[in-house]
């Protein structure tokens, strides 16, 4: 493990190799180390009870307090989209880049109002090896969950992710009485696109349609591919009238961006919209949107239809 650090106003930066990180046996020779040994054991066993990154960082923050007063702790790994903060972010900071020989595992920052002294920094550094491996496991777990819930072709959520998201959104809509709408989108005559332009072009179309849907939504909305050429879009806190506007934006953006040529297919999509009511299950909501989408197909495709209230 390699830890590079910068600390406080002095902005020192140094590298610590695995040999520099004190092992429990070495610390046992120092005064007061039975306390640190117990602390190491406690952190180590707590970290093994979970794979949830938030909990691992929280445990570390809570336990580190007994060795060194720390008022705030942040842990970030931008490429995993992780940015966690516990306590308050204060003026004096000690930051460590966490690396093993092979891989970078993010950056941890301890902060507080009073400057850290060298003994305290050494103590914090001596505990970092207890942090990096649980964090590595937590990141791997997060990645495994993410890929289990992602459609590999388009990169949007898959059916499993949709089930989770919809259950959560329905619970929020019920609890707070907020509107919730879903859009079922199906690419028109997709079989013909495959037949005329080839399967690879069909795959490209699926990817660009997913992109145009994402570009037409707010960041809080979510899109899922249900298989084939069918997508479900979940619009939280959105009424039927607002959903029609968003649906129309999506429909138009797909059509305008796929005008068609000798080598490119003309692509359109049909959309069915359904608004949640408290007596509905997730399944009811999806089925209603699906029926509305088939109405749009029957009425000539490249249209939006709403499920009856
Ligand atoms: N390229 C590609 N094609 C797929 C994929 N999944 C499903 N398909 C094809 O999508 C086509 C769907 O065709 P249909 O269900 O008949 O519907 P359609 O041609 O879109 O016609 P309408 O829905 O009535 O407008 C089938 O030919 C499937 O083989 C995929 O991942 N990639």
From TrEMBL:
Key words, A-Z: Nucleotidyltransferase, Transferase
Keyword set includes Nucleotidyltransferase: yes
Cell membrane is among the record's keywords: no
Region annotation Disordered: where it falls in the sequence: 1-24
Pfam families tied to this protein: GGDEF
GO function terms (MF aspect): diguanylate cyclase activity
EC number annotated for this UniProt entry: 2.7.7.65
Catalysed conversion reaction: 2 GTP = 3',3'-c-di-GMP + 2 diphosphate
CDD domains with a match to the protein in the record: GGDEF (cd01949)
Protein name: diguanylate cyclase
